Amino acid sequence: MRLAIAIILPWLTFFTIGRPLAGILCLILQVTVIGWIPAAIWAVYALSQWNTDQKIRHALGR
Between the CA atoms of 56, 57, 61 and 62, what dihedral angle is there, to the nearest 10 degrees? Predict the structure, then answer.
């Protein structure tokens, strides 16, 4: 579900993973039509990094 949000509303993804400042910057980038694609790519990348961090925390038992 977060992947779909990352593609459709990239800025919202950052708020769901706890990075509100990045979400605001992404929203500013997304407002421009040209910036939509880089914003979506950035959101998908950040989401994949967040998923990796969650897996590491789970593996370490934190």
Answer: 160
